[in-house]
Fold Peptidase S9 prolyl oligopeptidase catalytic domain-containing protein.
Amino acid sequence: MDPKFFFFAGFFLLGAVIVLIPCVVVIGLRSNCPDKTTDSPATSLTASLATTPAATTPATLTTTTATIWNESDYQSNSQYYQSLTNTHYFNQTDNLRLDRLSSPQLHPTDGRSLIYLRRQYHMPDLRGSTTTLHWQDLQTNKNVQLTRPIWGKQDQQFTWIDKNTILFLSNRASSDLTQIFQLTLPDDLSTLSGFIEPTQITNYSLNIDNLLVNRNATRLAFSCQVYANLNIEQTNARKQAELDSGRTIYKFDKLYIRHWDEYYTGLRNHPFVVSINRQTNGIFQLSANPVDVLFNIDSDSPTKPFGDAKAQWSFSASGNSFAFTRQHDEDSSVAWTTNLDIYTVDLRTAGQPTVCITCENIATDTDPSYSPTDENLLVYRSHSVPGYESDQYKVKLYNASLNTKVTLLDDWDRSIQAMTWSPNGQSLYLEIGEEASNVIYYLVNIYTNHSVDLLIDNGTSHNIHPHPTQERTFVFTYDTLLQPRNIYLYSLDSSIQPLTNHNTALLSKVILSKEAQKFSFMGANNETVWGWHVPPAHGTGQPAPLAFLIHGGPQSSWYDAWGSGWNFQSYSAQGYAVIAINFHGSDSYGQNFTDSITGEYGSLPYEDLKLGLDYALRNFSYIDRTRVVALGASYGGYMINWIAGQPEMSSRFKTLVCHNEELFFSEHDAGNYTVYDNPSAYEVYNPVNHVANWTLPMLIIVGAHDYRVPETQGIGAFTALQRRNITSRLLYFPTENHWVLNPQHSIAWFDEVFNWMRQHAS
């Protein structure tokens, strides 16, 4: 083998291990929700804006759980920030103290109220969190916290069955395992003065990780991590036996060995489907033994690491059919393919086999969603290029009675990120990345003219939940670079109403940049490229250093979105101008723009970054060109190492920050070559070939549990820097993965990065 490959392995590796499953590198935390007080609306959004064995006996419970709560240890962020007398510049600690809101659902029959999730963090030290269910009346804005906030307890994945009943997952069980719970609501929630104690429905020996209830509340599906040929209790017994053996040995006969942040030792996400019924006391119970739909199949559904039941599972209108996504990972090809398929199973008769409805396509098919009115229709998202995780997602309509598939909006060049049926089964709400915003379109009628209306054209919108009776009315989450996530109501008259204000007190005590400006310039190939400019929070009246941010992917974008990690406001509040370029390959400017970097992953983005920096220094004159710092994560980390070896570019920076350097899906990005078939395709943009040109101080950050980007890559780069006697530092997180998720570690990350930037660019 070429000796450069050994040097490459010894100092740092170009890109990640080839691990090909769909993944979008988006730095973000799960959203959630305030204290038990009445809330008023937030600031208005502006116009800019089965043949398998049973799992095990259900072990159903009908007793209400009671958990001790130390009320004196509870303080909302509103209470804490209201106690502060002075304002201060925003920082990462403030960012992490924000309540995270998610999963809004309107009342299932009248739509006059909603329930959502709110995650709060222990104030002010962030040593713990809790996620609770909240209710809000849309007419009066009365807000009630339904479940008791207990540190370490997380409510999730709820379904509003009827006006009095919610089924959800929580680890409130005395075992601390996540189980299914029921919340029984009073007729008039506005008069509720205390918390509602939920009733535990299941009591399995393993965590329940996903939950989906059919529309009629006659069946539900849940997932547990089991061994493919064992049920829940047998899996638990095997795990205990392995623990008691005193041995820790992993044995592999195929790939994956490990991925993301876990070793693949045999445990699989398997969906279990079971009938349910309501008892005379109003409490649901499992009325049969759950059936493992994937029993004896060495595969996952939902897919790892980020699949979830909301997107990848669906019950038909009657609840008699179940559709799910699974990956083809029975052999090692899972490590270099992106082949996901959709299967359905008829639940009316026991022992029915699963049927693959997309196996003719060896690219990705995922996210099945049955029509709410037609038993035979479902939509799903589909790629057409095998092995390419950033291929354009198109929406396909499948008719089971005719066994036909139709591609909707086939002439579009945007990738569909999510879709939601209207309650009448005629239309679809579509979430689409478009020019660095996550916008919402409305496909008016999927059966006739396929016309679309743009409903929301700015910011980042997710989590659409339609009104049960009113057309073009829905709740959703919305955030921008300038404001964190809140829940909004979109109405038929196109009005947009903010519904939540849990973070108002916090935001009133911090100083933020009030401007996020889009700009464009002529980039590589004489094509228009876009970027973001965020000025320092203290203004532009004096020269300011520049934080030049490089996004990951590379097929992603710097979106108009609030970040819990790489938040532009965290940099601007420290006095930095922020420039962030959505270079060639970014994912929200049409598929041709995204595809353009195949075989050019080290050239076109690099040219765009050079030209984008030129534009910024030319047009934002307050930026001090002698104090410029480049920072990148993931693919951005790869680009940092590439820039370090290119003197014409590296000479423009005072220092570099590289977080978890990687190049993902390297076979496709290298032009569909393996490294042994065409080594030159990998060597042409290999930073190791230019280490002799490295001169700049560099801060390198790695997470030991980032198994797509082995820690040896960062250690190798640090070794090369030290060997060349270049000022450098390695920041090593032994318990973090590709992201830094522990709040204490996140604060330390920013402290270290800003200290390094001040040291070298002050």
